């Protein structure tokens, strides 16, 4: 059944509301009180303590459309953006949750009913996976939902035992995939060529049963619970009969706005897609109070902004452009997320300022990079160049690596780190004056990077960059 993204979001929430779930708002991208997590990466994050039995709500079933960012930490899809049909840095996760109320059977029933009856998806287009030790879930699918066993696979813990992070709630899961058709390369889940984009995972049903401790021990949760997550953009692609998330209504409008700024009409251009993806994560991160900076969450934001700006440069855009996409984004998403509309002017200001700052060094840095590549023997950009770009021109390493990948090259990460620690040693031996000479405090009260070296911060950045 064909629905717009907005219609799908409402249909989902309404389906679960009618089944006794409280409709709760999306929480912030910055998880409240959770130092173990960089960003909200799933719908269950705001309910983490409810699953653990440490927090109580006045409902035992809930449904949300949660804004999520996966650009750092355990779930990081930054490197996939522009290369797969299904990954974004920012996306919306539709979810239904049971806190000790229903468990596997109802979770599976609801999911199947929503997909095959509300959305009218033919069952033969769907593929099911279960955790290979979970005979109970397998039996519900085969014997109660009457799913064809030829379209069910049992998968190990890597994909079918879900965890929010290194610690916290987790459990076996069962996933639903959509087959986009044999014209697209890729095999079903569990097959050797499962990494293709033919079978796209749309919904993950997690049977929350354990709390994982730092040493890996699993303690059973007070009550078995359910946490599900379905990517709105992916299910919108299915509903709208398109393969790539970038072809759905919401992205087409954003892409058209970006294409106008780039003076092109090819909406399939991969740089345009990266820009349309990145404006969503950047705008929502700033809305949720993250500011570009040189460490932690702020540095992830700065890296995403600079990547987007570099893609603008690649498209030949001359002026500051990225901030101009906030308005079309607010048109698309401001109704579902009023906080975005409210913060619009502030988001534009922050992005424009960051863009102007990076513009001062971007072109020069790109010239150095292009000259280096033209003279390059072999296919590896040397660590010294990567370091020079990073240190003097404000090119995050992943930005240089992104450029390298476009040109079928790689960067010398080990060489970069050697150059970095050499710099750190030089600083240490001259430590009497390197304390914090280039840290400025701006009028927002934020610690700011001024383009050169704050050596203690750099050590931290390398720590983030290393996965
Ligand atoms: P994939 O295997 O495709 O990377 P995942 O297994 O990492 O997805 P989950 O952690 O199970 O994803 O998240 C639940 C759902 O959220 C997925 O089934 C998918 O629909 C959606 N989703 C996950 N990551 C992304 C992303 N980067 N962009 C868009 N949607 C996503
Ligand atoms: Mg993933
Ligand atoms: Mg997966
Ligand atoms: Mg999954």
From TrEMBL:
It is found in: Cytoplasm. The keyword Cytoplasm applies. One of its GO terms (molecular function) is aminoacyl-tRNA deacylase activity. Its cofactor is Zn(2+). Belongs to the class-II aminoacyl-tRNA synthetase family. Residues 3-467 form the Alanyl-transfer RNA synthetases family profile domain. The gene is alaS. This is Alanine--tRNA ligase.
